[in-house]
Amino acid sequence: MSEFLLGIDWGSTNRRAYLMDHGGRCVRRHADGVGMLSARGRFAAALAELCEQLAVPAGTPVVMSGMVGSAQGWQEVPYLTADVPLDELPRSLAKVAGGGRPLFIVPGYCQRGTNVDVMRGEETQLLGARALGQGDGWVVLPGTHSKWAQLQDGRIARWTTYMTGELFALLAQGGTLSALMAEGQEDGDEDRAAFEAGLALARERAPLTHTLFSIRARVVTGSLPAEQARGFVSGLLIGTEFVANAMDAGGQLAILGSPALTRRYRDAASVFGLDVRHIDPDEAYCAALARFFQAKVNP
Fold first, then answer.
1. What does residue 259 show for φ and ψ, rounded to 5 degrees?
2. Closest CA to 11 of 62, 65, 63, 53
3. Any residues with CB less than 8 A from the CB of 282 and at least 6 apart, and which?
4. 251 contacts 230 by C-beta, under 8 angstroms
5. How far apart are CA 297 and CA 2, in angstroms?
6. pTM of full prediction above 0.90
7. Non-local CB neighbours of 236 within 8 Å, separated by 6+ positions
């Protein structure tokens, strides 16, 4: 049995790695921009480079989650259906050939019916959240593609994905609002006021494309300072998620995200009357890896 397990959260643009020992402790961690898009066609080499950087012992098993298991990844792994419990993930891993050590990919989940959706990577964090004591209820995983997931009886009963982070980045990079968003400052009093104003506008449930344009109109007419546009857009987009889900959350919400995003979502949750629990994403991922270790993911 190996003394270590390397876990990799391998997304589209970023990669995070955690080397765990047999006691469930994370002894080394690493983050970089070698995501699926930049590693495509050279996954084995990218993994070998990572293992060298982290001084991973030879023969250490590797468990990978995220877009590495997509059709554009190292090896496409079929989705699990939503009726498969999260606790079954350690026994549902797909083996990967090559790489010079035991390699496994965590399958994602698909949801069919009236609300078709998929996830790759978030299921591992949700498994870790359960290991950290998260019970039934709603968990939001903010990010490029923010996910609101309802946990029930050890399963992901339903979830919905929002392109919030991606849309915010695109609006900031180019287009009508980009010049205005470049002037904004985060975390100041003006930003906080603008964020809350965006939340309030989201609660009016006006069409999103109209409300986004209205931000430019507010600046042009002098009713909104240009330096507040960035915070206003953030509040509007995040508020749209809460408008769609806050009633279902039943007053309680767990946020599984980075400190910066958690702060934004915690502020929004307060406006919508939700009590919040924060789950650290690194701790959740390591807790999930401990479950894989317990399932004896070894050659």
1. -55, -40
2. 65
3. 16, 18, 26, 29
4. no
5. 9
6. yes
7. 198, 199, 201, 202, 208, 211, 212, 215
